[in-house]
Amino acid sequence: MGRERAGGGAAAAVRAVVPLWVRRRAGRCAPGQEAQGDAGHRSAWRRGRVLAALAALTAGLLAFHRAVPNSAGRLGSLLEAFLPWLGLVVVVLFALALLRRSAVALVALLLPVAAWTYLFGGLFLPGPAPGARQLVVVQHNVSDENADPAGTARALADAGPDLIALEELVPPALSVYERTLAAAYPYHEVRGAVGLWSRHPLSGTRLLDIKPRGITEAWSRGLRTVVHAPHGRIAAYVAHLPSLRVRASGLASARRDESALLLGEAVAAEELRTVILLGDLNGTVEDRGLAPLTSRLNVAERGFALSFPAAFPLARIDQVMARSAAVAHIRTLPATGSDHLPVAARIELD
After folding, report:
1. What is the pLDDT, as a whole number, of residue 251?
2. pTM greater than 0.70
3. Is the peptide bond before 130 cis (omega within 30 degrees of 0)?
4. Residue 72 burial by CB count (10 A; 0-12/13-18/19+): exposed, middle or buried?
5. What distance in Å separates the CA atoms of residue 322 and residue 335, rounded to the nearest whole number?
6. Is the dihedral angle over the CA atoms 15, 20, 24, 26 positive or is it negative?
7. For residues 98-132, b (16+ Cβ closer than 10 Å) or e, as one string?
8. CA distance 110 to 132
9. What span, in angstroms and rounded, lies between the C-alpha atoms of 77 and 69?
10. CB neighbours of 60 closer than 8 A, spacing ≥ 6?
11. CA 20 to 30 Å from 271, out of 101, 148, 312, 318?
12. Which of 135, 76, 106 is nearest to 320 (CA)?
């Protein structure tokens, strides 16, 4: 009698622990239990079809974001400005699929995971070892309301770059940057509200006309100069493109796009082989509005470096691009008195 009870208790424990489909294969599942298991299996593939559709839509937006039209409210550019954040949508859908116990949704989620990994996964990989022909550069919109320009200048110099590009330079802060950076960066050029500080001699500096037609007031936000680096001459461009505005009608980016086109044409006409562009471009590298630049210049191969807004960075709109050189890695530096985070990049020259 005792053995029967013990045997019955052991069998109950096995049934509780071993999955139903395993017991069915072993021939230990009663017909009624087998039917319940089949029904549960079918239900797992029927539940969550809406989640599966959302997963497929997310994958489509990631893989074919260029197909989203820009004609109405520049929705394409708006999507591309925040494209990496679709990864959060995948995380939410995954949690919901688990709660719903939906097999079809979990399988469908492999599509956006693959698309996101293809687009952004490589940015998280370790960068290559530094080569013999490299430059370290820093790009920072210092903000015209920065209350601590001296502290900002010291923080940027502490990163030890060869070049420092600054935007939103205004008096009297400009003189503070000049004094603070003078010892380590004896060469600098400023045109309008942008400037470049260098450890190496500069020459041939000129104002870059990238002003959109609709702006009538004084507006100087671009310069071109030649850096006489140890490995040869490099054309350096510093630019601050017009800001974007998100309105009820969509994304207002016409001026930014026009300025990017003018800058792209200047880069295309550059006679020097090696070019470095540093600037607050008010757009991510996925944004088609920057296509006149990204189609001609290499962008960062490693590093995410979200730079704006400094309090809670959502996008990298501070960019470093290059021609006949690779932007091997980009990273953010600690916050300064600006509403942007500075970015530092390692450039490997060809």
Report:
1. 85
2. yes
3. no
4. exposed
5. 25
6. negative
7. eebebbbbbebbebbbebbeebbeebeeebeeeee
8. 41
9. 9
10. none
11. 318
12. 135
Residue reference for tokens 């490589």: 122
Closest CA to 136 of 270, 278, 232, 264: 278
The amino acid sitting at 67 is A
Size of the chain, expressed as the number of residues it contains: 350
Check: CB of residue 166 under 8 Å from CB of residue 197.
yes
Token pair for residue 220? 């100087």
pLDDT digits (tens, 9 = 90+) for 73-91: 889 999 999 999 999 999 9
- In whole angstroms, what is the distance from residue 138 CA to residue 164 CA? 5
- Please, are residues 188 and 196 in contact by the beta-carbon 8 Å criterion? yes
Strand 202-207 to 343-349 pairing? unpaired
DSSP 66: G
- pLDDT beneath 50: ranges in the chain: 1-7, 10-11, 13-28
Contacts of 269 (CB under 8 A, 6+ apart): none
- Residue 277 corresponds to which tokens in the numbers above? 């562009």
Helices 110-120 and 49-63: crossing angle in degrees, nearest 10, is 20
Minimal CA–CA distance to 306: which of 296, 319, 323? 319
| Dist CA 127 CA 304 (whole Å) | 12
Q: Which two tokens stand for residue 188?
A: 């600098």
